[in-house]
Amino acid sequence: MLRSVLATLLMVIALPGGASAEPLPLPAYGPELEGFAYPFPVERFLLTSQRQPLQMAYLDIRPGSPNGRTVVLLHGKNFCAATWESQIRALSAAGYRVIALDQIGFCKSSKPAAYQFTFRQLAENTHALMDKLGIERPILVGHSTGGMLAAHYALLYPKAVGQLVLVNPIGLEDWAAKGVPPTSVEQWYQRELKVSADAIRAYETATYYAGKWEARYEPWVTMLAGLNNGPGKEAVAWDSALLYDMIVTEPVVYRFPEIAVPTLLLIGQKDNTAIGKDLAPPEMRAGLGNYPELGKAAAKAIPGARLIEFPDLGHAPQMSDPEGFNTALIEGIAAP
Fold first, then answer.
1. Which UniProt keywords apply (predicted)?
2. Torsion angle, CA of 75/80/83/88, rounded to 10 degrees?
3. Which single residue of 15, 117, 131, 204 could bond 246 by disulfide (Cβ 3.0 to 4.6 Å)?
4. What is the largest CA-CA distance in the chain?
5. At a CB cut-off of 8 Å and minimum separation 6, what does 90 contact?
6. pLDDT exceeds 70 at position 10
7. pLDDT band at 17, cuts 50/70/90?
8. What 8-state DSSP symbol labels residue 272?
9. Sheet holding 43-49, edge to edge
10. Helix or strand or coil: residue 54?
């Protein structure tokens, strides 16, 4: 996984005799993640949105032996197109053309200073890229916030989606309705300015990886922390704040019964993600982010949905157990 950059991304180096050096200085990546290498060539989609020119980075990987189908991968809030590397390689080997995007406001894409982030807008941007690439009825795979986006996309463009795959999507519950207190954009912004590698690593260990940290996850911590440590950190933090506001104010759970495309849910059972959970009263936190219950409820609410559960995995099953996840994904999309 990104072997070419591992050496420069790891935060600690081993010294002779088993001693450890001090942590290396955190990289400072540009506002469009300049300086962080992706495992595939990055292409750019130029678009005009909300009266401003923007660019959306994406990966387009064509298989050696195409099966005529395309998979579109939609990343989560703290993820990028590059974090799908294992899935891209497995899907391509199975004959699928694979498109992986960095949404506006994320990773290697534009960070507009003034933008009304909505799931509809991100879906429209994604649909515009599909039109440009001539892709019709792809298999849409969305993880975390990308799962929430994928659900909105399927509701907006039901005839333009062949299959829908939701990987530990957020938005399976309405946090505000459950009592999570409102948070202003300014409050989100101040929180994002304090992002650190240690805080990212601790959160991801507890939530993404079910309490089990491995060194192979470190590049993704450095990717996020370096982006928030770079010369455009204020722009990155501001867009992140706007995106958090979008997530908590646009629940999609109530519209699950309207989804009219074949849907597969891939749910790590040790996930406990709930945006703003740390802001909720202590007595309320334990009831939030219960993915064993939320996954079953979503499968019941979405007509004809199929549910595959990963008992020992957390919020990022595609990264914790890529081999097992890839097998389940490819088998799951083989026959809608």
1. Hydrolase, Signal
2. 60
3. 117
4. 62
5. 322, 326, 329, 330
6. no
7. very low
8. -
9. 43-49, 52-61, 97-101, 70-74, 139-143, 163-167, 263-268, 306-310
10. strand
Tokens of 204: 């991801």
* Residue type for position 216: R
Domain residue limits, the chain: 39-334
Cβ–Cβ < 8 Å for 57, 102:
yes
Residue labelled with tokens 């202003």: 184
Nearest Cα residue to 99 out of 136, 66, 58, 68: 58
Q: Which DSSP state fits 51? A: T
Residue 44: is it exposed, middle or buried by C-beta count within 10 angstroms (0-12/13-18/19+)? middle
Structure tokens at 81: 């197109």
Q: Which secondary-structure segment (H or E) carries 97?
A: strand 97-101
Gap between the Cα atoms of 266 and 278, Å rounded: 25
Residue 99, SS3 per DSSP: strand
CB 318 within 8 A of CB 332: no
Mean pLDDT of 280-300: 94
Query: Distance between CA 35 and CA 223 in Å, rounded?
Result: 10
CA angle 226, 92, 31 (to 5 degrees): 20
Q: How many angstroms separate the CA atoms of 107 and 223, rounded?
A: 9
Q: What are phi and psi of 302, to 5 degrees?
A: -85, 120
- CB atoms under 10 Å from CB of 321, counted, come to 17
> Does the pLDDT at position 20 exceed 70?
no
| Helix, coil or strand: residue 297 | helix
Q: For 128-162, what is each residue's pLDDT tens digit?
A: 999 999 999 999 999 999 999 999 999 999 999 99
| Class of the domain covering 39-334 | alpha beta
Q: Would you mind telling me the total number of residues written for the chain in this entry?
A: 336
